[in-house]
Design goal:
The chain is of the alpha+beta class. 33% of the residues lie in helices and 42% in strands. Strands 6-4-1-3-7 form a five-stranded mixed beta sheet. A three-stranded antiparallel beta sheet has the order 2-8-5, with no helix packed on it.
Length: 126
């Protein structure tokens, strides 16, 4: 009887592993993850430089983003990296606050950004 229980446990374990492998490999379920420590970059600094101005990012220097999509695509986006940026090209002298935007890698599809740790960045233009 003890031997029979061991065989049943081994069979159950093998069936469980097979079902898990099928779901992860074929079904590709939805996944939500948080990507941490994404650097916030400034874009459009050329137009400020042409006007003799310079922008300095005050806060935040890094953000976190929560993304959702098919597990394989979410993992690909996390591996290849997300980019956070602010467009400073239309900003004026003094302290400015601009919306932070996220760009996903080009070869990632069906992934959405659900949440950012901060939605705007503050920087100084001198």
């Amino acid at each position: 009887m003890l031997k029979n229980k061991k065989i049943q446990m081994i069979c159950s374990l093998l069936i469980g592993i097979c079902v898990w492998a099928y779901v992860m490999g074929q079904v590709d379920p939805q996944a939500t993850i948080t990507v941490t420590d994404i650097n916030v970059e400034m874009q459009g600094t050329e137009s400020l430089e042409n006007a003799g101005l310079e922008a300095t990012l005050l806060r935040p220097k890094m953000i976190n983003a929560t993304i959702t999509g098919k597990r394989s695509e979410v993992n690909k986006a996390k591996k290849e990296g997300l980019e956070a940026y602010v467009d400073v090209s239309t900003c004026e002298y003094g302290e400015n606050e601009v919306e932070i935007k996220i760009s996903l890698p080009d070869d990632v599809s069906g992934v959405t950004v659900d949440h950012l740790s901060q939605y705007s960045a503050t920087f100084n233009v001198k």
